[in-house]
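Good morning,

Attaching, inline, the backbone tokens for the sequence recovery test we're adding to the shared suite. The designed sequence is right after.
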């Protein structure tokens, strides 16, 4: 079964609403490709104008964060029903910046994955190791543990709709990309972990992205690997290069 490629931009805390609309216009023709799912994961305040700007195109809208309750006294937070109503389909969960800067742990990340599915949002679940863990040679165990915790009580049918992004922290925003072989090694291991936790069909269906300094120059090689089904792209998603990655 062929998995459909998914190329998602993670805009992080970049682009004001008017800049966001301008970027959508700049990328519109460059990201055309009916064989690929193209997603812009954008800051909360950009969601409404971006959803409007990409209407009628092949681009799907994603969010970068949300909270697990539907509404109430949670100052500063945004809920899954709010995202759905605004046209969001995908949600990044467990990004290393949320884990490291904002203290999100695997218990909350697991709650977010379950809430996203219950709300009809498709999670892009991020995992990945620090440089210290890679050097210590324990990165595979670390990532496996993240997957086990983050997918606790998540069903096989849900995992078939899940996107997992392998993002080695040492490669994020550093210009240092994992080699295609290093990325494939971990993406394959993630798929094997899903096969162990669920079954072969589920492992075959789950889409796994690589993320970390993916760019127009290295995308084709990374995406040629059998277990790499797409990319989660930070810096290069804010430039015309993103179109080259979509069409790599
Ligand atoms: P980068 O970010 O492409 O700028 O390395 C990737 C990410 O953090 O999702």
């Amino acid at each position: 079964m062929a998995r459909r490629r998914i190329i998602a931009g993670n805009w992080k805390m970049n682009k004001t609403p008017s800049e966001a609309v301008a970027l959508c216009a700049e990328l519109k023709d460059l990201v055309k490709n009916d064989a690929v799912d193209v997603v812009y994961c954008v800051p909360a305040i950009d969601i409404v104008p971006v959803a409007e700007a990409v209407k009628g195109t092949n681009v799907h809208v994603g969010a970068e964060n949300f909270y697990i309750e539907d509404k109430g006294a949670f100052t500063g937070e945004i809920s899954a029903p709010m995202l759905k109503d605004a046209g969001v389909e995908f949600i990044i969960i467990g990004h290393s910046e949320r884990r490291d800067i904002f203290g999100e742990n695997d218990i909350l990340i697991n709650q977010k994955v379950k809430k996203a599915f219950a709300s009809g949002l498709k999670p892009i679940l991020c995992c990945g190791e620090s440089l210290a863990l890679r050097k210590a040679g324990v990165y595979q165990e670390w990532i496996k543990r993240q997957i086990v915790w983050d997918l606790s009580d998540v069903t096989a049918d849900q995992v078939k709709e899940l996107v997992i992004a392998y993002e080695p922290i040492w490669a994020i925003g550093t210009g240092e990309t994992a080699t295609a072989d290093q990325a494939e090694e971990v993406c394959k291991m993630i798929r094997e972990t899903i096969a162990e936790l669920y079954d072969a069909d589920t492992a075959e269906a789950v889409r796994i992205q690589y993320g970390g300094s993916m760019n127009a120059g290295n995308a084709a090689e990374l995406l040629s690997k059998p277990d790499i089904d797409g990319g989660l792209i930070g810096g290069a998603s804010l430039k015309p290069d993103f179109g080259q990655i979509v069409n790599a």
